[in-house]
Amino acid sequence: MSDQATPSKNGFFLKADRITKVYSDGTVALKEASLEIRPHEIVGLLGENGAGKTTLTKILSGLLPPTRGRVVSPKGVVRFVSPREALDFGIGMVHQHFALVGTFTAAENVALSHDRPFTGIRIAETRQDLNALMEESGLHVPLDVPVEKLAVGEQQRVEILKVLSRDVDLLILDEPTSVLTPLEVDELFTLLRRLKDEGKSIILITHKLKEVGSITDRVVVLRQGEMVGDVKTAEASTEQLARLMVGQALEDEADAVELSTEEIPHARTQSDVDRTGEGILHVENLIAKGNTGEIAVDGISFDVYGGEIFGVAGVEGNGQTELVESLTGLRVPVSGTATINGTNILGVDPRQIYRLGVAHIPEDRWELGLVLPFTLAENAILGVHRWEEFRGPLSFLRWGKITQHVRRLMDRFDIQATGPNAPAKSLSGGNQQKLIVGRELAKDPAIIVASQPTRGLDIGAAHYIRQTLLEMRDAGRAILLVSADLDEVLAHADRVGIMYEGKFMEVCSPEELDRERVGMLMGGATEARREAE
Q1: How confident is the model at residue 430 (pLDDT cuts 50, 70, 90)?
Q2: How far apart are CA 179 and CA 315, in angstroms?
Q3: In this structure, are strands 218-223 and 226-232 parallel, antiparallel, or unpaired?
Q4: CB–CB of 321/520 below 8 Å?
Q5: CATH number of 1-90+200-249
Q6: What are φ and ψ of residue 371, in 5° steps?
């Protein structure tokens, strides 16, 4: 720990003192928010989307200046003009939106983040250090593959490793577990506890109250930019925290209190759906390659029927991304069959697939879901601009109708923005996700391909989207749900396929699964293999 960062006698490492942040469009993200950060402590930072969590941590990590207020260390007021200065001070942040050079390997990205010559020798040393850090942390990634070819979950692990390699005194993690498996979460939390015991300070931004209860020492809650709670974790109930976040009790406490797999009320039994013949989506012996040329989807066959949610669970990077891209026209598979109501969709232009009644909620909202410089109105009609409702004489767009449509989406999905003409880049990550989900579900599709639909959402918004998917299922729609949130899949899917190395280890109803069995299947072990071992 640097002398500059030495904690004071009363034990704090850093303070946010009455921080206010007003963005150029007039959005007030923070209102005199104060937070004290101490060594040997893990602080959970809770709040709905747009509550100001990310803004506050960006100010602490040097990415943003405050409009008013100050950041104070034991030595006095500190002013970071860049993340580099904050890193030199001992503060590192892992963001939801990755800051990686896509053409560089994981080892090169980590080496680039260090204040050392970017040479072959330095990269080799970094690779050696990373191998040791991966063994210590349990966060494993291929070090010599360009990160643009890695799955989203693997890219996040690179970001976490990049910051851990700097040996920071304050580690800020923004939704770090959203793309990790339960085993990886356990390994990460073991690492965080060890860092805390070594005297580090940790801020964990999360929407998962079960995680807050298991890992944090203290919880602070932001609502609409104001600090509304600062309590010891042991003295706070999940219901109390949920109420502080949203300002009221949730209708469904299952979204506030994350249940164990055995306690999750399943939506419906398999017998409620007629599974004779081919489903609305029919997939047979699908084979697709990944970005590095390896077989990522290895002979998968399944059907998704009207009136059911077919869930796909598994460790990120086992072919889920390639499966979704093959079914939505973003990747041309090697071979196999995939049809929607009997019409082939493999290798077909995504626009043609859309016309067959497909809605796609992509896992990467920045690359595939939104055009960030576009306004909400412009993004809200992507893929639907040919609707007669929005097209006037000579195919001119009816902007009045479009504005009404966007306002309905904002109300229905609680999208926090200054208005339909606000640029999408001005929205928080969660509100960007709600815009994508609202746009896709408003199409009234026959089949919904939802990949990580609630990633990064607060419990209120996630609850709404899950309920909307259930309503569309009950209305006869077919839904393919791919999610890294195991509880989400088991709670809402009618059937679940556990995916490992491009194959389904098993397809069954959620009632047939418990955590031990799911963990075994996600790791590629069958009952027969386990008994043999």
Answers
A1: confident
A2: 8
A3: antiparallel
A4: no
A5: 3.40.50.300
A6: -105, 100
**Angstrom distance (rounded) from CA 522 to CA 362:** 22
100: region left, alpha or beta (phi > 0 left; psi from -120 to 50 alpha): beta
Intervals of CATH 3.40.50.300 along the chain:
1-90+200-249, 259-357+447-460+471-533
Element (H, E) at 204: strand 201-205
Rg (CA), the chain: 23
Architecture in CATH of 259-357+447-460+471-533: 3-Layer(aba) Sandwich (3.40)
pLDDT of residue 273 exceeding 70, the answer is: yes
DSSP string, 300-355: EEEEE-TTEEEEEES-TTSSHHHHHHHHTTSS--SEEEEEETTEE-TT--HHHHHH
Please say if the pLDDT value at position 150 is more than 90: no
For residue 385, pLDDT over 80 is answered with no
CA dist., res. 94 & res. 100, Å (int)? 11
Structure token pair of residue 529: 């293999």
Half-sphere CA count of 249, side-chain side, radius 13 A: 5
Q: Provide the 10 A C-beta neighbour count for residue 332.
A: 12
